[in-house]
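Look over what follows to help learners.
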Amino acid sequence: MSQLAEVIRRPLLVQAPEPIMALVEDMKERFGDALSGVLFYGSCLRQGDALDGVIDLYVLVSKYADAYPAWRSRMLARVLPPTVGYLEMSYQDTVLRTKYAVLSLEDFRRGTSRRWFHSYLWGRFAQPCVLAYSRDENTTAMVEACLQQAAETLLDRTMLAGPSRVDASALWRRALELSYSAEMRPESSGRAAAIVAADENYYRAVTRELAPLLRALRPIEADDDSYRILSTRWRVMRTRVAWSCRRVWGKALSVARWVKALTTFEGGLDYAAWKLERHSGVKVHISDRMRRRPWLYVWGELIRLYRSGALR
């Protein structure tokens, strides 16, 4: 096993907390034999408290046809993955809340690869996560390989957009900032810095092991946490153009996923309002007519939120 694989494997195979395993059991009942894996990631993982806020899960299924009996659900899952769901369940003396995104193994593999243009998946899964459930060793090995590829892809696609000399933390902050900028998200400007600070040793270790694989990233021998970015004007320009395209394409995809969620995400309006208010501090107004026909009346509120800075 390579050193990079070992660095990524260490947090991935940590035993998930009991509340997460309770949610895993629900996913087993919900998706049956189609369930291949469950990944726990996001703010609850970083904070070390699965009961604080909404738990983020990625549910990996063998095929959408196996996961969704209805043809409409299968079609929507294939056309614009992932399909997002929201679940509340009683746990001991509290309520567990989770937002879970359903993705086929093949879409997970493609979305974390170097061939995939947009950062939606390789931006997320370059970050540490926990494999709370895996059907078998082959699934575990596939997830490990995808996380390695995601980290390599994110750094390769972003490092030329920053300064020519940088430490690992600054490199990853810039990488995550660019990834967030390619989506319409209610995140604060300091979100990337907070994510890197929460797992700084992990990002340093991943950078150190990735450096030999990235031709433009060279360690500075006098400082074990400093790197020189080797580039040309043409490659820098190409990187910036690519991210400009990702931002346009990504925001369009974000709107499309929201429209899809209006039909597939039970309680989606209330969850979206809660998250927007939590991250931005901007009050979200959900009118009666928006609840009746969200696909028709949500646009005015989205435009207002975007202009107010709640969506970036």
Strands lie at 35-41, 55-61, 83-91, 94-104, 130-134, 165-167, 217-220, 223-229. The chain has two domains: 3-266, 267-312. The chain has a mean pLDDT of 88.
